[in-house]
User: What shape does this take?
Amino acid sequence: MFGAGVGLSGLAAITRYVRIDDVLAFVVAGLAIAVLATLVARAVDQLGDRFGAGATGVLQSALGNLPELFIGIFALRAGLHTVVETAIIGSILGNVLLVFGLSVLVGGLRNGVQHFHPRRARTITVLMLLAVAGMLVPSLASFVHSPASRHEGALSIITAVVLLTVFAASVPASLRRGDPAQEIRKAGAAPRWSPALAVVVLALTAILAALVSDWFVHALTPAIRTLHISQAFAGLVIVAIASNAVENAVGVRLAARNESDYALSVILNSPAQIALVLAPALVLLSHVIGGIPFTLVFSPLLVTTVATSVVVLTFITLDGETVWLEGAALVGLYVLIAAGFWWG
Assistant: This one.
């Protein structure tokens, strides 16, 4: 897979510096981002296995979303704030609705009712609800023109610090608590990489991800014009899927094998990390990289869709079991939301 990542990155470099079809350049860069995201996740996973089950989640939180972070930084520098906003929301919705919905649908049709530890799901959904509140407060302050709306930048910084602090507070518990679902995976796992190999792959992949993210953003605007799609739809669906779907397809495969605990952990930890780490980090970094500062003020439709999705997720996972029809409902909700952003 590393060879595929290098090869696609090379093609992306060619399409960046050689005049070629705009859509082809965008597709090649998007495929390279998807493969590199998978490589980052796999290298982090290998390191986590070496240092303990709890460390896997911590490493995934810190490094697993590197491609999304790089895309966000380069898009902000290019002035594509709408793409960044919708890509953040799209990454959350893509995991919560599309990927988790597909895993529940496929796993349910193949294995019947699937069961998982409700405490694990409850912890993730509580963090997700906090993240939603972190988007709602600055956004509502702006919508209703409260006195705080004149200070949305400062309010966003305060919210970002709070979200990052809560995430940091959850790290020690993650390190102490073992993950029984990982033991299931290890029983039939492929041969482990050496720590040195995992570090080298992670470092090289991170460098390639940074380069390809710049090329991806460069190809994004011409492709949007050629395809006649809005920045909102591009960020919500295309960018989000390119940076997340391949990695999280692993979760669907695990659900099909009836490893629902591990599938839930793999899929739902990703949007929690995006909401608690990636979005706040972009708020703080935007004051360093130049351009217009990024805030946590989102449009009413974006805030409403992500809040509705997290509430629905909470109800579905509350009892510690899922059926295929719940998965179909989640996928249906994702399609409705995506359609709503087709025109912008």
Observations:
- The CA atoms of residues 16 and 218 lie 8 Å apart.
- Confidence is low (pLDDT under 50) at residues 178-188.
- The two ends are 36 Å apart (CA to CA).
- The chain has 13 helices and two strands.
